[in-house]
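Q: Joint fold for the lines below.
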Amino acid sequence: MSLHALQAGFRDWLTKEARPGPLCAARFEAGLSIYLNNYRAQLMDCLQESYGIVHAWLGDAAFEAAAATHIDRAAPTNWTLDAYGADFAITLRRLYPGDPEVADLAVLEHALTQAFTAPDAAPLDPASLGAIEWDHARLHFVPSLALLTTTSNAAAIWSALSQGTPPPAAQLLPEPTTILVWREGFTPAFRTLDPAEGQALVILKEGHTFGAFCAELVAHVGEKAGPAMAGAYLGQWLSDSIVADIADAKL
Amino acid sequence: MFATHRFGLGLRKPHYSDFLDGEAAVPVDFVEVISENFMVDGGRPLDVLRRVREHHPVALHGVSMSIGSADGLDLGYLGRLRSLVDAIDPLFVSDHLSWSRICGFNSHDLLPLPYTAEALDVVCANIDRAQDSLGRTMLIENPSSYLALEGEMSEWAFLAALCQRTGCELLLDVNNIYVSARNHGFDPVAYLAGIPADRVRQIHLAGHSQGRELLIDTHDKPVPRSVWSLYAEAIARVGPVATMIERDDAIPPLADLLAELDTARRIACDPARRTA
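A: Joint structure:
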């Protein structure tokens, strides 16, 4: 048997407990059990470490059952274990179709983990801003920024559980809501956005100009309130440290 | 230049503050980190490593290169490792004589190889590729294993051939030799006699656990007497090399590991004593 066939057979043992010919000898029994146990225990530990809040929400038995289902469903493919569990939310959505907060918690927890090791970028110091031609200005956000959509109160549940306080009961939100995730210094952070701010960040992240964004606001809230709202959002984003640069060159 | 003993520890999260904020410098000659934990884009992990690097030489120890993979190496992985090597200028870059990746699957475990001519060709080609890509010599570590696949040579003969064909050097894990020797019934001293002593650059010391039938390389206990004794045999043969305590789980206070490192220092200075 070639080395490639042997290694593919070993993979089948770990993922399906199927033993190819060369591994069928009785003398391999004890060793194969140890490798199988190591494989599954390592992935279980990885999910427990990556999804501590989901674990706290579901409890030990339900979390371990969900993690075992995920391990059966999704074999690791990436060189880094940090990537394993990126799609744990998909498994949870299948297991808990009537409890969207479970998968929403996983999506939020994964986004915070991603933000933790996102590329470094110094946030823009508002004092360094010179004269800007705002109509043509484009905002560049820090690389850790992510926008998530949630249909549940997962953000409130996450906050309570992370502070060790009793979480609220799960609830469906009246409408899908955006959660902003980023890293402040070395610490991942998030906050829930009102629909207008969520839409604003989507537009600007896509590369539209600040002028186009203001025009959109004016169309919705009027000549007077639009620019004021845009200024308030910008001030909040600078204060959150999510803006890396503002470029006002015409493209 | 005369080689000298160096004594180090694996840098683990519970000890970050000892290394970064302690009033006195931690008395080690180097630290070793798991490369993959720092092959990230940014954030706190890289900041910690850069700050530790200001005061200590750093060895990069990998667990995911999969140098025994019949599929060859993951070039994305190699690129990331090269970036880390360039940023840290490590004392050593090492990984294991094992495989973890095949057909897009990654086991995240150090799986055993058959010690055959075919496997030797595969591993040599992979090490050549890695050394070319990293621009430096790698250290290859002997694994502990729980099954002995049909082979054509011993593990030590395989390692000797690797060194001869690729120019790689060795990271000798004394605990792994002991665990595999007990599990597969070979003489650990014959193993030490069979490896090219002049290619050993680093030694790992760790503990293990007794499983139902086999010893398991848990790295979660103090170095046992049996491993200290084998270390004395090893150091008498390979001479002054970098030695470190590798604890991966059940991490004790730093003082406990420094005490174990003192034991290593005593044995290295007087290998004939052999006891902890």
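Q: Anything notable?
A: Chain A touches chain B through 41 residues (CB under 8 Å). The radius of gyration of chain A is 24 Å.
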